[in-house]
Design brief:
By secondary structure, the protein is mostly helical. The protein has three helices and no strands. Helices cover 72% and strands 0% of the residues. The protein is elongated.
Length: 88
């Protein structure tokens, strides 16, 4: 039984690229719905992807920015509405 990956396969890079794309998608969706959950998730995934050295650095930075924007939008709507939830 082999416990390690084959020598020719780089395991961490593909995972970090997926994290970068996922952070972008979650940040984009978070602008529309569930930004209290999707914003921090996008920030966390983008941070891990950047820390691990993703090849999709721009996508991870966009995910990070969109995650922060999700929280800013949430704070603005909460301030205007006076509640934790917001509606149009």
């Amino acid at each position: 039984m082999q416990l390690t990956a084959p020598a020719g396969r780089r395991t961490g890079i593909r995972d970090t690229d997926g994290m970068a794309v996922a952070s972008f998608v979650l940040g984009l969706l978070g602008l529309l719905v569930l930004n209290v959950f999707l914003g921090p998730s996008a920030i966390a995934l983008a941070s891990v992807a950047l820390w691990r050295g993703t090849a999709r650095r721009g996508r991870a930075l966009l995910g990070l920015g969109l995650g922060v924007a999700d929280l800013v939008v949430l704070a603005a709507f909460m301030q205007a509405d006076g509640t934790i939830s917001w509606s149009f």
